[in-house]
Amino acid sequence: xxxxxxxxxxxxxxxxxxxxxxxxxxxxxxxxxxxxxxxxxxxxxxxxxxxxxxxxxxxxxxxxxxxxxxxxxxxxxxxxxxxxxxxxxxxxxxxxxxxxxxxxxxxxxxxxxxxxxxxxxxxxxxxxxxxxxxxxxxxxxxxxxxxxxxxxxxxxxxxxxxxxxxxxxxxxxxxxxxxxxxxxxxxxxxxxxxxxxxxxxxxxxxxxxxxxxxxxxxxxxxxxxxxxxxxxxxxxxxxxxxxxxxxxxxxxxxxxxxxxxxxxxxxxxxxxxxxxxxxxxxxxxxxxxxxxxxxxxxxxxxxxxxxxxxxxxxxxxxxxxxxxxxxxxxxxxxxxxxxxxxxxxxxxxxxxxxxxxxxxxxxxxxxxxxxxxxxxxxxxxxxxxxxxxxxxxx
Amino acid sequence: xxxxxxxxxxxxxxxxxxxxxxxxxxxxxxxxxxxxxxxxxxxxxxxxxxxxxxxxxxxxxxxxxxxxxxxxxxxxxxxxxxxxxxxxxxxxxxxxxxxxxxxxxxxxxxxxxxxxxxxxxxxxxxxxxxxxxxxxxxxxxxxxxxxxxxxxxxxxxxxxxxxxxxxxxxxxxxxxxxxxxxxxxxxxxxxxxxxxxxxxxxxxxxxxxxxxxxxxxxxxxxxxxxxxxxxxxxxxxxxxxxxxxxxxxxxxxxxxxxxxxxxxxxxxxxxxxxxxxx
Lengths: 394, 278
Known about the structure:
Chain A is of the alpha/beta class. Chain A is built from 14 helices and 12 strands.
């Protein structure tokens, strides 16, 4: 068996509380990032972000022991399950795994507790208990009473793509029959301040691949796909919306925070996908680039796009969602699948001026596409490069 | 497909895998073993490369290099390798170091180095860098069965031929903050404060036997329950203590094995059954 069927997709981010709402916002041109409103005094100021809207917050499950990251993951999982047509009761007849990627969602970032602890004051354990009870993969599995494997991947910004790749391996190796896979991450003071201090956050709308780029905007959200062994479609009666065909991943072993400049790792991840499927570079209808709008990222991706995919349309969707960290790879896989299924791509928001050092330019207008395959790139701290090869047909 | 266990390594307060095994074989009472020394890493990694490494990363590297050495391999011979790292809490000390810089210096003075090195996949990336091995590399962070999930992922990667070998390392470190948290949580439920432990354990899995194979991995399944863990009652608790227990049991198996001997481990909070043999 090669590949896994996608029978449901769920999404929440600043562009909307579900997949249709997000796509509507995006094809209308998107919204500008805003100065965050939920952060405390410990947050670096002056850096706009793509924060989920209050109306979307109101849609989320609530609880003192539930983090925002995991609440978004549960919400997106429910949307994916509803779309697939599976009832929870029927799912319980199968081995259903949960693989989710995150960064903030599994970090010891309970700042309010920590400040009181350090000052010798009595600190409430509420945020600590929330951290312990809210590991995204563990919590989603418990939420739906599932019995399959559980995996929480923390590979920084490739986590969401890696989780989908891990679920694909599970299905291909018969570890489980179905898998909820994706990623989730919320904005917090630690992430915003950390990226600001690394001097890679922009004080304006991010401009992926643009000559005048000034860095990234952070965002938050969750993206989840329901993956099935293709044979299960007959039993479940669910509708196949596309396939995850292959996953390639490679660590550069080069630098803690910068990608290898000749893109050796990213090229390797791409080649793993192509080799597995027997497809050629020219079979790609488009590329969903990682496109963070940091200089290092854009130069490396530009190298791969120019050398391996010359003439093939590409875009970055970070201009609509911001960089959602551990959720990004999953959210962008969903955008890719949606675009293949609906035959149209949104413009790469934020791009205006060609950068000769990057050597390629993303699409600047919404466009009609026709084709079966696309690639989604994810790059991360630690030199991680992960690629998903996706199909819009069964 | 056959999967071989080709090497083991560990780094904890008392030494390596052999010393862990001795813990299992004696009636050692529980005590506070404290922080694991990592000075021995100098035998494997140049001092200049160790300069900015945090304690968690040093533990990971020391355990991993001991595992490679146990397999009678040198890093240059590790072709087709992948790295899988599993942890319960990640690099806690570095995370709290960043929070210290943030709360003490404010957002404008927060340490970018502490932020970047607190990212959970950095220790695995540093291992790939020091080994000089660009390769698939993934990090798992969860409190329930992190060790079993790491083995499950590694076996999938071997079976789908993503790599020829996987170096699995599990690690958690002590921190005053986490000790305090677990003490408070225990107090809330009327339990005595648990003794905490730190350490790393590594396992080199391969699709082919290495120069010094320990045995074939016959069956591995991540458990759903949380059975009692013997080593935790001696060494202390940690989300990845099952990895240390597995290293201890494997070390004993390796020394005492006969042609037909088989190791079956059931008493761990992460590995339900792991059988080794011919």
